């Protein structure tokens, strides 16, 4: 299955909130015909209304891809309305957090290709990272198509098995919140040292954003980049002695943080 098949047979979105809209904007920007897109959303945004796609006209017959982008707590009520898409002709692609493939197989059948995806919130600006995993019916071409479609909102990685999705949730799914809190605390620490609040926040935001961008494009590892900034007996070394304390510093704290989020993901799935 290819992008050409999607343009010819159609792309169906069940739900088009922030995540669905970010993906749709990318697809339309990359040349997806508006006439090929079908959306059902009970509360469409003004932006969606202006896109001239097929909006709230019912479930299309055998589209190439059906994207399930409703909130996880609404999935149970939403699935029966699209159960007719099962059978194998349509690739089911879900971006709903916490809903395992088995739930979709119970609705669509095990012979239906199903791919579960976990994007994160920077997808809203095309800077997300999404992990994907498919069921037994999902072929290599299905996975490649999902990767191509999801590349509209950032990077895509493939998992070996679905159980890894809980750890992905703990790292990249919840991870933006950890970084946002780091910005908060870094700015607060600057205030405590005498900086004005607005200035401290500007410095904190730019520092985290710049360091992240550098880490993403640099040939060196993050460990080496850290060493590059750290002069012997200098200011950075003094700060890192606190942050890297093996007992109560960031390494142990981050392990506990990711474990707590991953464990909660397992609880919700179970």
Describe the structure.
The chain is of the alpha/beta class and 270 residues long. The protein has two domains: 3-165, NAD(P)-binding Rossmann-like Domain (Rossmann fold); 173-269, ProC C-terminal domain-like (ProC C-terminal domain-like fold), CATH 1.10.3730.10. The protein is built from twelve helices and eight strands. An eight-stranded mixed sheet has the order 3-2-1-4-5-6-7-8, with helices on both faces. Strand 4 (65-68), helix 4 (75-78) and strand 5 form a beta-alpha-beta unit. It is elongated. The mean pLDDT is 95.
Structural class by secondary-structure content: alpha/beta
Quickly count the domains. 2
CATH architecture of the largest domain, by name, is 3-Layer(aba) Sandwich
Low-confidence stretches: none
Summarize the main sheet.
8 strands, mixed
Count of helical stretches: 12
Fourth-tier CATH superfamily name of the largest domain: NAD(P)-binding Rossmann-like Domain
Q: Mean pLDDT, as a whole number?
A: 95
Task: Assign a percent range to the helix content.
Answer: 40-55%
Strand content: 5-15%
N-to-C CA distance? 33 Å
Taken from the alpha-carbon principal axes, the silhouette is elongated
**CATH class membership of the largest domain:** Alpha Beta
Q: Give a count of the beta strands, DSSP E runs of length 2 or more.
A: 8
């Amino acid at each position: 299955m290819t992008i050409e098949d999607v343009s010819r047979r159609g792309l169906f979105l069940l739900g088009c909130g922030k995540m669905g809209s970010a993906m749709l904007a990318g697809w339309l920007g990359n040349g997806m015909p508006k006439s090929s897109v079908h959306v059902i959303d009970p509360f469409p945004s003004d932006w969606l209304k202006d896109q001239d796609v097929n909006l709230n006209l019912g479930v299309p017959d055998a589209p190439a891809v059906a994207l399930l982008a409703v909130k996880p707590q609404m999935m149970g009520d939403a699935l029966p309305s699209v159960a007719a898409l099962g059978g194998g002709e349509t690739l089911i692609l879900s971006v709903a957090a916490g809903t395992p493939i088995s739930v979709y197989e119970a609705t669509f059948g095990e012979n239906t290709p199903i791919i579960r995806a976990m994007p994160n919130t920077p997808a809203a600006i095309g800077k997300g990272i999404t992990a994907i995993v498919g069921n037994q019916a999902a072929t290599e071409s299905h996975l490649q198509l999902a990767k191509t479609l999801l590349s509209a909102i950032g990077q895509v990685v493939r998992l070996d098995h679905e159980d890894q999705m809980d750890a992905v949730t703990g790292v990249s799914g919840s991870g933006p919140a950890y970084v946002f809190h780091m910005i908060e605390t870094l700015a607060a620490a600057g205030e405590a040292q005498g900086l004005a609040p607005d200035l401290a926040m500007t410095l904190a935001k730019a520092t985290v954003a710049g360091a992240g961008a550098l880490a993403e494009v640099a040939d060196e590892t993050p460990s080496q980049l850290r060493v590059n900034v750290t002069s012997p007996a200098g200011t950075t070394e003094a700060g890192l002695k606190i942050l890297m304390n093996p007992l109560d510093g960031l390494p142990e704290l981050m392990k506990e943080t990711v474990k707590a989020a991953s464990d909660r993901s397992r609880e919700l799935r179970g």
